[in-house]
Amino acid sequence: MHIFAVILAVCILTVGLIVARIQNPSLSNIYRQKEVLSEKVLPTQTPTYIPTPFPTSVPKDTQIDSYKYPNSSVISSSGNSLSLQSDDMTDVITGWYKEKIENEGMSVTTFVKTRANDKVLNKLVGVKEDEQINVEISQEGAGQTVDISVSFLNESDN
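Structure (tokenized):
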């Protein structure tokens, strides 16, 4: 009985496919057609590169020069670092740099003041987006000249 039902189903399916092809012959041609009907090449537009203007950054030497302590002498200077000397007190210099970093919109991430045996070593680090300023203030003994080292890092320049 089951075999008879399967044979009947296969016959009905076959008859249905034959009738479908007779009524719509284009369906059978879709799968058989393998030749190219047209070799006409349509022109395509090549995208044109238009440069996008972007704000120019301030040169590094200008940025680093803004961190020159007012009452100091420049010992050496390069594009992103300064070496200075001053006769002012280390606490005054440190306060000026802390205020300067904050006024530039940077967060003071490191602020260390060290004093031992009349030697002073103060370090400040300010960070804003991809910019970082490092300041080191040192004095070898009371009454000695204060050495100031400033370096500016900009991650977008790397």
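Helices lie at 2-23, 26-32, 60-65, 90-103. Strands lie at 73-78, 81-86, 107-116, 119-128, 131-139, 146-154.
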